[in-house]
Amino acid sequence: MPKYILTIDAGTTSERTIIFNKSGHIVGLSQIELQQFFPKPGWVEHDAEEIWTIQKKTITDVLKKYEIKPSDIETIGITNQRETTIVWNKKTGKPIHKAIVWQDRRTADFCEKLKLKNLESLIQQKTGLLIDAYFSASKIKWLLDHVAGARELAETGYLAFGTVDCWLLWNLTQGQVHATDVSNASRTMLYNIHNMEWDEELLALFQIPKMMLPKVKPSSHNFGLVDKDHFGHPIPISGIAGDQQSALFGQMCIESGMTKSTYGTGCFLIMNTGSRIITSKNKLLSTVAWQIGKKVTYALEGSIFICGALVQWLRDNLKIIKSASEIEVLAETVTDSGGVVFIPGFVGLGAPHWDPYGTGTMLGITRGTSQGHIARAALESITLQNLDILNTMEKDADIKTKELRVDGGATANNLLLQIQANVANIDIIRPKITETTARGVAFLAGLGTGYWKNLEEIKKIWEPDKVFNPQSDTNMTKVRKNWSKAINRSKNWLSE
Asked: What is the pTM of this model?
């Protein structure tokens, strides 16, 4: 019987299980939505027990639906929403509080206090990250400070911290393994990416006992066995990676300078920087991409808050389209945006601007402006945000990007990708299989067991669907210039 790779894809809004074959094709998929909790403004939580319960159900469902025996699974890979924080009791296996999701902003004031103490440079030098509530460290501290008895339990060794991958690994192995991989550890703001260890100075700063933390392993590694009581067969777990790093690997961006962008609700751009840790001068994040054997690969990352969400806004708020797919047809009713510039700063501006007081802006509107112009300007705004980060990455890394590999739901829009090619003046490559996040950790897990012998074998599996070459467009110079002017006008709009 053929063997398969089972991938757990623990996202922000759903839990998924995807099964891949030796050719890297999908042979089975199960997905269940995850409940979101918003107890206060700016707070976002998940039920950690629900994460495990429904993730286990997707595994059971996909095996049953596609008539695949647990013994036919070569190994399991886990990819996950990254910074989300779970703390649980080691003895009971029960969380002490709901999971605090990466989007949660409850510790923003504490993070501002750290900045006022001029700690930003220290933390960036050690972790590659900027001080922000986004990351796990301040979330752990909040739990220890606000859950009754938590700090005493932590200091006596009864509590465990983990990101979602770590929590799932703990449950899959019935509490036998408390571990994570280097890519997830590097997003906690507690991990020194130079010596690849938990940093004692940062642990003291955040008042977090080291005994709470998981062991950190390579991304492609024997993490342990799924307890046979779960599915009737002990399945190895040999790959773990955070979602964006996993997508970078899934796109086979394995050489320094190779870059991918995931077009989802937001956009995430990551550039492979090889063995170099680049301390960004332009507010990008340095992170661990993955570790295979003893070789550590690093990356530069930039996040855009609003991409696909802009199309949803045009649909739900302006109601100029009835479905997301209609925006391409509407935008093609005009040859350009008619001078309209759209800044989608609905929740502030992300990298490289990092302006929480920026806001959404539409400029250049005239009596002749049509719905088609607005739709086209919206698509241009997505591509121009990507260009801002791409240019910044090139400056920080001193690398000229030759191509951009893309994935995510919005990449079904051919016009969007053609505009991206024209704006950035590089080839945009869409792969045949766009489930790159799940596929990436499948590759890492398969390498861990010898399912695939080496990277060369995997490189042959990755295939492009379509290459969008830049087309000569005399209007692009003006578009880029107007974008820069409009961005500056939208900045700091909400500040007093």
From this structure: 0.90
